[in-house]
């Protein structure tokens, strides 16, 4: 850990050094979804003071990680992936059983972006999109692979895919 970034007790233990902060078109519904899909535990809920019913800040925990959420406030330039029509960000979850965890998220309302499959880097891995437009990858580690082995396996996979495409 970079000592310059972690200066004594100035980093709150509840969030750690890096905490994702998601903007959703309905943060309250997102919290309910994350509870059902990922077993999230709500820690903080702060409603906006404008009477809109929106959340200006919320925090949940998924496993040992904190995640902050807020509703969209377009007037402040704060919009989520549905408004943006996509996201360049994927949140990653390591789980003991990716197949059941992935299915739990699908049952809660997520959609499959990439089905769960065994990957060349040693994980069983899949990607889904939650109802709020955020992408989540999920994996269970199956075996250790060196960087060299992963590079070689990726080359073989690409060559195989190119041969199939021809």
Automatic annotation (TrEMBL):
Pfam families: Glyoxalase
VOC domain location: 16-141
Organism this protein belongs to: Pseudoduganella plicata
Annotated protein name in UniProt: Glyoxalase
Family annotation (InterPro entries): Glyas_Bleomycin-R_OHBP_Dase, Glyas_Fos-R_dOase_dom, VOC_core
